[in-house]
Request: fold
Amino acid sequence: LAFQLFRELGLNDLVLHLNSVGCPSCRPIYRQKLLDFFADKKESLCDDCRERLEKNPLRVLDCKADGEKMMNMGVPLITEHLCESCQSHFQQVQQYLQAVGIPFVKDPRLVRGLDYYTNTAFEIMYAPLGAQSTVCGGGRYDGLIAEVGGPSTPGIGFAVGMERLLLTLKEQGLLTVPVGVPPIFIVALGEAARAKAFVLQQALRARQIAAEIDLMGRSMKGQMKAANKAGAGYTVIIGEEELARQEVQVRNMTTKEQIAVPMNELVTYMESNRRDD
Ligand SMILES: [Zn+2]
Ligand SMILES: [Zn+2]
Reply:
């Protein structure tokens, strides 16, 4: 589901990193193996990891400072300590991924600090982002619902980092910022006008035109000031008279020209001012 989402956004060169974090029957055994392994290596771990040993020794593996080092020292890997059922689950996940052509690498350092994860843990990475390369992470959460007090219910989930996704889209030339109409600030006076301003704002945004409204109950003067500060290209004014006439005043902030436009024609009017640069 996650990978398909990114494919539909047109993204390329994403790599799925895949691991299994086992289940409540095999993970504690692995955890103990790790603790045994780290027992005489505490001195070589960073401060964070020494703390992690108490709470979550698995997390040492994804430590930037220690993960690679511990791999080189032959740290036991969870994939070598999965119970039979977890092993076959992990095999199956890989077969299914291959069957639908999703490229993946097995990443035994990909662990999670959260107990509700079972079996699958994954991250989707875009390498050119360097240290920020993980765009999405998730897995199987069979323990989650029970942990928050519900009946034992299997589950999956993932989270996407919006900024990283935007960076990835930008890197791949897929982030097209609509150009044309300069940002608009709608100045509204009174409750009814404010409600109308909100509707107009949504209509403008639906046409890829940036539009702001006052959210702080400012006076007319205060809103005009805010419009200036926001760098609005146009200020759209709705007062009592305009409301009664179902009109707005559109003020071009550069030329200071102001004209009345019927409310239901505002979007069309703004689009007719779209520049092509
Ligand atoms: Zn298991
Ligand atoms: Zn560390």
